[in-house]
Amino acid sequence: MVAARLPYLEEVTEGRTYRYATEKILRVALSWNLAAGRKLLSWQLREGWIEAPTGLRALLAACLPLAQTATTYVRLVRFYAELVLLLTTEADSELLEKILATG
């Protein structure tokens, strides 16, 4: 598993490079297989490889294309409003644009 190499990546890079790599790995996993991506997110959160707001934004972005009904869309908007925004300290206008475009 590629994510198992994250400790090595943290050792050989400077700054937050490994955090960006962690997020990219998660986004790819979520786009490939939502269930596998969710498991990876859980592992990354448990091991401290990703911050909760970053992981939740990636999960939400992966779920948006799956919102085929109004009910699902409303649930995703509530997830964003009630959880993601609560935990986020920085604006993510790209994600908000995707949410609005989906609806």
What would your notes on this structure say?
- 75% of the residues lie in helices and 0% in strands.
- It has 103 residues and is mainly alpha-helical.
- The chain folds into two domains: 1-50, no CATH class; 51-103.
- α2 packs antiparallel against α3.
- The longest helix has 18 residues, at 70-87.
- The N and C termini lie far apart (35 Å).
Topology (SSEs and partners):
Layout: H1 6-12, H2 17-32, H3 34-47, H4 52-63, H5 70-87, H6 93-102
Structural class estimated from helices and strands: mainly alpha
Number of domains: 2
The separation of the N and C termini measures 35 Å
Determine the strand fraction and express it as a percent band.
under 5%
Low-confidence stretches: none
Shape: globular
Measured as a percent range, the helix fraction is over 70%
Q: What is the strand tally?
A: 0
List keywords for this structure.
103 residues; mainly alpha; 75% helix; 0% strand
Question: Could you provide a short overview of the structure?
Answer:
This protein has 103 residues and is mainly alpha-helical. It is built from six helices and no strands.
